[in-house]
Amino acid sequence: MEMESGILTCLEKVTDEENSAVVIPETAHQISSDSWFQVGFVLTTGINSAYVLGYSGTIMVPLGWIPGVIGLIVATAISLYANSLVAKLHEFGGRRHIRYRDLAGFIYGRKAYSITWALQYVNLFMINTGYIILAGSALKAIYVLFSDDHVMKLPYFIAISGFVCALFGISIPHLSALRLWLGVSTVLSLIYIVVAFVLSVKDGIEAPARDYSIPGTTTTKIFTTIGASANLVFAFNTGMLPEIQATIKQPVVSNMMKALYFQFTAGVLPMYAVTFIGYWAYGASTSTYLLSSVNGPVWVKALANISAFLQTVIALHIFASPMYEYLDTKFGIKGSPLAIRNLSFRIGVRGGYLTINTLVAALLPFLGDFMSLTGAISTFPLTFILANHMYLKARHNKLTSLQKLWHWLNVCFFGLMSIAAAVSALRLIAVDSKTYSVFADI
To answer: 77 or 230, which is more confident?
Structure first.
């Protein structure tokens, strides 16, 4: 069934293998309206968010040069492959599946629908919380550049960031409405990436020999390596591909493939550049937030941190949009975004949702551990395990024995990786909890 853009009001029912109905509501948000180019920028905005400033510390430091470089390249390839599997199933069974849980429910049934929904929203909630931590860290970095009185603490900046994110979320009704803001996001990303790259090159040339050895005891190295693997997965994947694909114009599969190729060509090069150069310049002492490591003119670093803050506000809206879509659809928020009922609903509900995100961000500002746990418990299952198994089940009769074996190997391997990464992340959180207090100023 081809869905046209606009708001659809009917309900469809997807029946699982046990003939128990899963009710799938049509969305109150705009769909089928965006070009593949715009969707490509949505995907690229996520991959080149301010998180990229931490990858030299959270990926390269635990892995070292050879495993780190190979890991990033392999993660790029397997992420593109896994995302393409999900994209090809968008119109499976003669209908469009505009939500991840809708696709899982159609293939597996009611239980998978609920489990996928839970995994996805845990994933997105944690990503949103991480963005608010990043935005707060960028604001604090600006403050420290001009004042050393330490009156303002990180939790205060996180609260300010949450408020700004809420204002932006209230102002932008749905994902397709970002449009011009995606161009702004790209410019902001280039500013902090170029500044981090140039200043890191300068520091690297002037610095003495760096230590590139992996720090820690043997046990610590094992756990941090596993955690870094989860960060690799986190770097390239959204966990909400069907929701993004829902906004694209027909033909949805071929257009989404163009958007994915755009993301994994133009999008990854800046990320590679700032990650590798940051590690080259500072070695094992690389900070988990690169702009706090570089030396340079105050105004340049301030500009870069302002750009990181503003871009984070835009990027967060992408990952919060599935929750907004769910709430708007459930409560029938449609029509003019400026209607009193619709505006007051967004103020109350979206503001309330981001208030919870902000509280969690201020309470537990441990960014590296946060990324590891997110990758382990949600991104691994959604991006690799579920993607491969859904494709295996949906295309079972069309796959050769070798292809089936390949997908089963992926399911088993990433299942084990997910378990190992979750254990590693929990260990890191337990260790850090002995060092940091809640509402810590880090």
So the answer is: 77
Query: Which of 428 and 73 is assigned the larger pLDDT?
Result: 73
Residue 236 and residue 47 in contact, taking contact as beta carbons nearer than 8 Å:
yes
Q: Which of 232, 242, 277, 266 has the alpha carbon at shortest distance from 92?
A: 242
CA–CA separation, 362 and 158 (whole Å):
6
Give per-residue pLDDT as tens, 385-413. 999 999 999 998 889 999 999 999 999 99
Beta bridge mates, 22: 14
Give kind and range of the element (H or E) at residue 196: helix 180-206
- For residue 272, CA distances in Å to 92, 193, 264, 265 come to 34, 10, 11, 11
Cross-strand pairs, 21: 15
Q: What is the pTM of this model?
A: 0.89
Domains in the chain: boundaries? 11-433
Query: Amino acid identity, residue 57?
Result: G
Cβ contact 227:428 at 8 Å: yes
Write down the CATH number for the domain with range 11-433: 1.20.1740.10
Q: What is the pLDDT of residue 224?
A: 83
